[in-house]
Specification:
This protein is of the alpha+beta class. It has one domain. A six-stranded mixed sheet has the order 1-3-6-7-9-8, with no helix packed on it. Strand 8 and strand 9 form a beta hairpin. The radius of gyration is 18 Å and the shape is globular.
Length: 192
Amino acid sequence: MEEEEGENYPMEQHRVTQHRVLLIITPEKEVFHLITSEWWMEEVNMRIQPWRQIEARQERHYVSVNPPLSMEVNHSRARGFLDFSAQTPLPQLTQSSMDLLIWNCRGAGNKRFKRNMRELVRIHKPNLLVLLETKVEFSAMGMFFNRMGFTTSAHVDPIGRSGGIWMVWNPTAVNVQVTEASSQLITARVSR
């Protein structure tokens, strides 16, 4: 029996402005998050780590995306780049400076995952992908991400068939500096 084309996953959209985006993701729920940043924002910090609820005996993923600089500093830099005075308001644009796609895929490497991943990239055109609960080693994917333009990566492989965090990006679109990577934890600075 063939799988149906064009599966629909719940999507949540978030926009980084002067405040951070904080996500608490349940490993059992397959959902993807599209995070965009304001056009004047040059960089964001990202942290992905386990978040344990001891009383509920559950482990979830905690994902934080926040600007390292204040909105005032970012606005000042944008005004300088545009040669605007301090009194000139910045234009209100809908375009973003960076698009990040976070997907709790609950297993990667199979045909269903590959088909859905290609479709998500085609529709949303992210600069960086973060995949949670991959459940397979990154090396099992071969050249799959390279063929989509994501030629640079950082990853934490799963332990057995549990966990796994992959971060892949297009180095011509964003610069990613991983500052910490350990079992189920990745911290990085993402800039355009």
